[in-house]
Amino acid sequence: MKTAETYIMIQALEDGVTVIGLTRGASTKFHHTEKLDKGEILLAQFTEHTSAIKIRGKARVFTDLGVAESE
């Protein structure tokens, strides 16, 4: 699967969920941050610049691998 075709969906289960995009390369850096309130959904895509996504707060995450919940 190509990186540019990899999407995830994040559904906030509480107010104030933080979603942080992390860069690729020799040193990992934050490059984008979103705040979600309960019920909001964010669709995110892994790209040549985004290698990881960090989630703080209670959220449901939908990926090609299945569904997971953060606590």
Order of helices and strands, N to C? EEEEEEE
Q: State the helical fraction.
A: under 10%
Question: Ends: how far apart?
Answer: 29 Å
Largest sheet: 4 strands, antiparallel
Number of helical elements: 0
Overall mean pLDDT: 87
**Beta strand %:** over 45%
Taking pLDDT < 50 over at least 5 consecutive residues as the criterion, the unreliable ranges are: none
Number of strands: 7
Tell me what the structure shows.
This protein is mainly beta. Helix content is 0%, strand content 59%. The protein contains no helices and seven strands. The strands form two sheets. It has a four-stranded antiparallel beta sheet, with no helix packed on it. It has a three-stranded antiparallel beta sheet with strand order 3-2-5, with no helix packed on it. β2 and β3 form a beta hairpin. The protein is globular, with a radius of gyration of 12 Å. The mean pLDDT is 87.
Key attributes of the depicted protein:
four-stranded antiparallel beta sheet, 59% strand, mainly beta, 71 residues, three-stranded antiparallel beta sheet
